[in-house]
Amino acid sequence: MIRNNVGWLRASCVVLLAAILASCSVPPSGMRSRISSADSGATAEGAFAQPPQDRPGLGTRWGESRRSPVEATLFQRASPTRPLASAAIYYNDRAGIEAMAAASQLRRVWPVLPGPASSLVSVGLKDQSGRFLPGLIVGDRWFVVGEEGRRYSIVVRNGSDLRLEIVLSVDGLDVLDGRPASVRKRGYVIAPHGTLVVDGFRQSAEAVAAFRFSPVRESYAQEKYRDTRNVGVIGIAIFNERGTFPWTNREVKKRLKAQPFPSGFATPP
User: Fold this and answer.
1) Using one digit for the tens of pLDDT, what is the confidence trace for 224-237?
2) Given its phi and psi angles, is residue 106 left (phi above 0), alpha (psi -120 to 50 degrees) or beta?
3) C-beta of residue 183 within 8 angstroms of C-beta of residue 87
4) Dihedral sign from CA coordinates of 50, 52, 55, 56
5) 91 Cβ partners below 8 Å, 6+ apart?
6) What pTM, to 2 d.p., does this model score?
7) Three-state SS for 116?
């Protein structure tokens, strides 16, 4: 009897010990889920623990409000949808610009606009201290170096005797309404030999949101439209007023036919 009780006691101890070991080897449900999360986090660290991937270089963000009063004026275009001339300025950080043309020398000057635009207007980017941002020409493109967080302005100088309408875009967005840019939209009118300074996206007739260089993910184009395809370019379209076309085909042909050494002798006027 005693032997049987001892055997039963031994058997009970074995069963109890097995139960204790089993309970120690299997974590409770709460602990089990925490371990699972840690393990899955280790394998999916790139998807959840890393910052979102971003395009390198600069964009332009919606900055602080700045006073910039304007008023409406009448201007009838010679052609509603065909600019007299157009040009673009491409911007990026120094590393991005140097990657495109490492051997070129940066300069702080007015860009040389292509074609006939060069005889009408000068356009450039200036920093908040009023200095030209350094840039360089690569092929037929003008590249300007910006710096993250710095404010900039677009400066357009009218070198002609005509009133001109200037339509501007930044990162593919119209500077007046912040929507996708088009040459069909209206712009700023500059008086003959006048200068236009555009400090930002227009909020009202009295204020603009400053242009500030930013990472692409913080750009106005990304935050407003989730579209960064056109980040990094500033566009300018120039329209002349109806009846004031500065060049005609007839005048161009006459100029090209001019002779540098015509025959004959000089005669009095």
Assistant:
1) 999 999 999 999 99
2) beta
3) no
4) negative
5) 58, 125, 133, 143, 144, 145, 146, 213, 232, 233, 234
6) 0.69
7) helix
